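A quick word before the example. In earlier lectures we treated sequence and structure as two separate objects. From today on, think of them as two lines of the same record. Here is Lsr2 protein written that way.
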Amino acid sequence: MDAETAVAVSLYKNGATVADIAEVTGLTQHELAAAVTGTGAPFAVRTPTNDPSGMLITWGQQHGTKGMQRLAETARNALAGLQEAHRNEAVVEAARARVRAAREQLATAEQALRTAQGTAPKKSAAAAPAVPRPDRAEGALIREWARARGHQVGSAGAIAQDLIVAYRAEHPRADAA
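And the structure line, produced from the sequence above:
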C-alpha cells in the first residue's frame, strides 16, 4: 500500500467522509473502498450530514494549531472508544440471542425426549386435590403412627400429604363422608 492510500485509509478509519478523503488524496470512492476493505475493515459511504463528528475531527486534524490538532486527536480517540464499545455491545447481544435460541431448542429437544420416553407430564391429568390439613390432635396421632412405621416426621410443621392419606385410609374418621 502506497503512502497516499495509507493516509486515505487512516483518514477513513478516523471518521473522515469520502468527499474529504478524495479532496485530500485524490482517490476515488471505489479506490478508497478497495483500500479500506483490503485492511479487513468494513466500508460505508459517510457524508457530512450523517457523520458530522468525522468532518469536525478531520478539520481539527488539519488545523494549523497544535491545540486544535490535540483536541481532534482526543475526540477521535473518544469516538473510537465509543465505536468499540458499541461493536462489543452488538457482539454480546448477538451472542445472548444465540444462547436464548439454543436454550429454546434444547427445551424443545428435551420435551421431545421426555415424550418419546413416556416421562412427559400428562397434559390432561388433573392435579391431585389437596388433602385437608389435620387439626392439632389428629396431627399428633399421625406423627405417632408414622414414627411407629419408620417414617421420619418432625415434631411440628407440615406433615407430608402421602402420610396423611395413608393414616386416614387406616383410620377412617366418623365425620368423613
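Notice the following. Residues 32 and 38 are 10 Å apart (CA to CA). We will return to this example when we discuss secondary structure assignment.
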